[in-house]
Amino acid sequence: MIKSELINKLAEANPHLFHRDVERIVGTIFEEITAAMSRGDRVELRGFGAFSVKSRPSRVGRNPRTGEAVDVEEKHVPYFKAGKDLREQLNDKYGA
């Protein structure tokens, strides 16, 4: 599902809201999650999962074409851990 599909589903489920308001709500939620993560905070949505930032230290990598050693800088990457309810629903659906 992409962002526009999410907005359309929410607008259909809430006919009392204007489409532009639903769009603004979804945008605000995503902006707040992004802002919290950029501050280094963890964002937890109960029953769905938690977003956090993981730090990958600098290291020496290899250029795959030449095999030459290359310095790779430290990186901060987003990380998502699915919540228990989400995992259980997926496992029930796919029979795992």
Automatic annotation (TrEMBL):
CDD domains: IHF_B (cd13836). One of its GO terms (molecular function) is DNA binding. Signal peptide: none annotated. GO terms for cellular component: chromosome; cytosol. Keywords: DNA recombination, DNA-binding, Transcription, Transcription regulation, Translation regulation. GO terms for biological process: DNA recombination; regulation of DNA-templated transcription; regulation of translation. InterPro entries: Hist_DNA-bd, Histone-like_DNA-bd_CS, IHF-like_DNA-bd_dom_sf, IHF_beta. PROSITE patterns: HISTONE_LIKE. Heterodimer of an alpha and a beta chain. This protein is one of the two subunits of integration host factor, a specific DNA-binding protein that functions in genetic recombination as well as in transcriptional and translational control. Belongs to the bacterial histone-like protein family. This is Integration host factor subunit beta. It comes from Iodidimonas nitroreducens.
